[in-house]
Write a sequence for this structure.
């Protein structure tokens, strides 16, 4: 077979853009494992290098935007992209090229708005949050904030449903607000879409805390969309798989547990 041809049986390619977590819990590491578990293939562009462990993030160093764009173009020239998954962004100047990329590709875009580490460290530089809302969000198919991130992105909203409607008004195609960090007895995740009533899923709350749960879910949704699932089906399948990954989480450091993403 020619090295210039791609067989029809090749897995769908998901372009994942996120930070590098040296501990393997979140970011690009989570993307690779979650996408592979859905039967797709992760292409990776690192947006930021980090100094972190399973407890917290100590430092974020953005990858230069020219290097990021050069790597994206190399991957685009090598084959078709079926979906984009965007996580931690290292700098404001990375946002406009990614919005342009999304407009150019016209494939599903899943954005996990990583603004603060689970340990409390701030991850978004000044101006990045507003640029996400103004420039990138109109190109996003599904935004996957946890409840705290949704409140932060829509600070004037009195309820999470109002926050979701505010974010939908910015132009994104859907908002999945997750409740893993809420104090409720169960975890309630709610999908909001422009022209339909919200749909909620309830999952048993596991006793541990996790590092990389949000990255894992967002990457799984992107992979399901790349494989051809309808949006609501992709969200449902990805949640069920993520719940199983959290149930088999591993302890690899002195902080939060790492989702067990290698299983079905």
């Amino acid at each position: 077979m020619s090295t210039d041809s791609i067989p029809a049986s090749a897995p769908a390619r998901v372009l994942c853009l996120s930070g590098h977590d040296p501990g393997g819990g979140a970011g690009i590491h989570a993307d690779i494992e979650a996408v592979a578990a859905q039967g797709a293939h992760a292409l990776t562009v690192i947006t930021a290098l980090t100094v972190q462990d399973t407890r917290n993030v100590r430092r974020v160093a953005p990858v230069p935007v020219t290097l990021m764009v050069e790597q994206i173009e190399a991957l685009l020239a090598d084959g078709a992209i079926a979906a984009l998954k965007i996580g931690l962004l290292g700098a404001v100047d990375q946002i406009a090229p990614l919005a342009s990329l999304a407009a150019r590709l016209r494939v599903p875009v899943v954005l996990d708005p990583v603004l603060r580490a689970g340990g409390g460290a701030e991850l978004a530089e000044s101006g990045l949050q507003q640029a996400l809302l103004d420039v990138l969000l109109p190109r996003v198919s599904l935004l996957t904030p946890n409840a705290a991130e949704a409140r932060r992105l829509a600070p004037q909203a009195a309820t999470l449903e109002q926050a979701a409607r505010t974010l939908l008004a910015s132009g994104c195609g859907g908002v999945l607000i997750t409740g893993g960090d809420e104090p409720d007895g169960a975890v309630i995740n709610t999908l909001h879409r422009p022209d339909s009533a919200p749909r909620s899923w309830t999952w048993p709350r596991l006793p541990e805390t996790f590092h990389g749960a949000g990255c894992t879910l967002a990457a799984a949704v992107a992979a399901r969309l790349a494989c051809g699932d309808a949006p609501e089906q992709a969200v449902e399948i990805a949640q069920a798989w993520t719940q199983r990954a959290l149930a088999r989480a591993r302890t690899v450091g002195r902080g939060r547990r790492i989702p067990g993403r290698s299983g079905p």
About this structure: The mean pLDDT is 93. The radius of gyration is 17 Å.
